[in-house]
Design goal:
The structure holds two protein chains of two kinds. By secondary structure, chain A is mainly alpha-helical. Helix content of chain A is 84%, strand content 0%. Chain A has helices at 2-10, 16-24, 26-45, 50-77. Chain A is elongated, with a radius of gyration of 19 Å. In chain B, helix 5 crosses helix 6 (150-158), helix 5 (127-148) packs antiparallel against helix 7 and helix 7 (168-217) packs antiparallel against helix 8 (225-266). Chain B is mainly α. Chain B starts with a helix and ends with a helix. In chain B, 29% of the residues are buried. Helix content of chain B is 68%, strand content 0%. Chain B has helices spanning 3-6, 38-57, 68-87, 96-111, 127-148, 150-158, 168-217, 225-266. The chains are: A mainly alpha, B mainly alpha. Chains A and B meet through helix 4 of A and helix 3, helix 7 and helix 8 of B.
C-alpha cells in the first residue's frame, strides 16, 4: 500500500503549493479567530479601553498572519 | 475571453482570470524608462489624485478651516491620532509626514481597484509594496541604530529581558530572523496578497457573469444559467463592497505596523 501512495505522488496532477498553502492556513485562521474573539471580549468587559485593545488586536493579527503569508510564499521559494 | 467580438462562447469553456491579469505590455514609449503601460497609467493617476487632494486642500491654509482643508485636516488627523500618537507617542511627531504619505499613497493606489475606468490595484504587483516595505525597514533600523548604537540596537532587538541565560542561544536567532529579516517580507506579502486575491476574485465574479449570461441569452447554455449569471453579478457587487473594506484595512495595517516597528526601535531599554 505504501508503494501505491508513493506512486500516486509521482502522478500528482495539480499544484502541491496550493495544498501546502491550504494546510498552512489552518493554524493562523484559528489563531486570528482566537485573537479577535478575545479582543472583542475584552472590549465588552471594559469599553473605555476599546482603543488600546483594538490597536493590540491588529498587532496580534499581523503576527499570526505572518505565518499564513510565509506558507503562501513557501510554494514559490521551495521549487 | 472577448465574448462580444467573437459572438459565441469560447470553445474550451470558461477560462478564469489568472496571473496574466497582472502583467501589461507597454503601449507607448516602449524601450525607454518612461514606457507607459496600464500599470504606469494607473499609478500616475493614483499619485496625481493624491497630490491634487492634498495640494488643493492645503494651498492657502486658514486658521479656521473651510471646505477642502477641513477634509484634508480630518484625514491627516486620523493618521496623527490613531496611528502615530497611540503607537509612538510624542516623539513620533517628526515621523508623521512619512506615515501620512505612506497611508494615503497606499489608500489611493488600492482604491483604484474598484473605481470604474481603472479597476486595477497597482499594489497587487510586488514592486510598490516591496519598495514601501524596504523604506520602512531602512527607517526603523536607522531610528534604532541612531538611538542605541549598532550593537546596542541589535541587543535591544534580539535579546528580550527576563530570558534565562542558556536560552539565549535559541532566542537570539529566532528574534533576529523575526524582527529584522521577516518584517519587510511580511509587510510586502500581506499587502500584495490581499490586493492580488481581491482583484482575482472580482475578475472571476464578473467574468463568470459575462460567460453565464452570454451563454443563456445566445441559447448555448440552458435557460437557468441566467439565474446563475445574475447570482454571480450580485456576488460581484457585494464583494466590491467587501473589497472597499479590505482596501482601507490594508492601508491602515501597513501604516500601523510601520509605526509599531519605528516605535519599538525607539523605545527605551526594557
Amino acid at each position: 500500500m505504501v508503494e501505491t501512495i508513493l506512486a500516486a505522488e509521482q502522478t500528482f496532477s495539480g499544484s502541491a503549493s496550493a495544498i501546502g498553502y491550504g494546510l498552512a492556513a489552518i493554524g493562523p485562521g484559528i489563531g486570528i479567530g482566537i485573537v479577535v474573539g478575545k479582543a472583542i471580549e475584552g472590549m465588552t468587559r471594559q469599553p473605555e479601553m476599546m482603543g488600546v485593545i483594538r490597536t493590540n488586536m491588529f498587532l496580534g493579527i499581523a503576527f499570526t498572519e505572518a505565518l499564513a503569508l510565509i506558507g503562501l510564499v513557501a510554494g514559490f521559494i521551495f521549487v | 475571453m472577448d465574448l462580444l467580438a467573437s459572438g459565441t462562447l469560447p470553445p474550451d469553456g470558461f477560462v478564469a482570470p489568472g496571473l496574466e491579469e497582472f502583467f501589461w505590455e507597454p503601449f507607448l514609449f516602449e524601450g525607454t524608462p518612461f514606457a507607459l503601460s496600464r500599470w504606469t497609467l494607473v499609478l500616475l493617476t493614483a499619485l496625481g489624485l493624491m497630490c491634487l487632494v492634498m495640494v488643493k486642500g492645503m494651498a492657502k491654509p486658514q486658521l479656521v478651516p473651510r471646505g477642502m482643508q477641513n477634509l484634508v485636516e480630518v484625514m491627516i488627523d486620523f493618521v496623527r491620532v490613531q496611528i502615530v500618537a497611540e503607537l509612538i507617542g510624542k516623539k513620533g511627531a517628526k515621523y508623521l509626514p512619512y506615515f501620512a504619505a505612506l497611508f494615503f499613497f497606499i489608500l489611493f493606489c488600492n482604491s483604484l481597484s474598484i473605481v470604474p475606468p481603472f479597476f486595477f490595484p497597482v499594489t497587487s504587483t510586488i514592486a510598490i509594496p516591496l519598495l514601501l516595505a524596504v523604506v520602512t525597514w531602512v527607517l526603523f533600523n536607522y531610528v534604532g541604530i541612531r538611538k542605541h548604537g549598532f550593537f546596542g540596537y541589535l541587543k535591544h532587538t534580539t535579546m528580550p529581558p527576563g530570558v534565562p541565560g542558556p536560552m539565549y542561544i535559541l532566542v537570539i536567532p529566532i528574534e533576529f530572523v523575526s524582527n529584522i529579516l521577516l518584517r519587510p517580507i511580511t509587510l510586502t506579502v500581506r499587502l500584495m496578497a490581499n490586493m492580488m486575491s481581491g482583484h482575482l476574485l472580482l475578475g472571476l465574479f464578473f467574468a463568470a457573469t459575462s460567460y453565464l449570461l452570454y451563454g443563456a441569452f445566445t441559447g448555448e447554455s440552458p435557460w437557468f444559467t441566467a439565474l446563475f449569471g445574475v447570482g454571480s453579478l450580485v456576488a460581484g457587487i457585494g464583494f466590491t463592497f467587501f473589497e472597499a473594506l479590505v482596501i482601507f484595512l490594508q492601508a491602515y495595517i501597513f501604516t500601523l505596523l510601520s509605526a509599531v516597528y519605528v516605535g519599538e526601535a525607539m523605545a527605551e531599554e526594557h
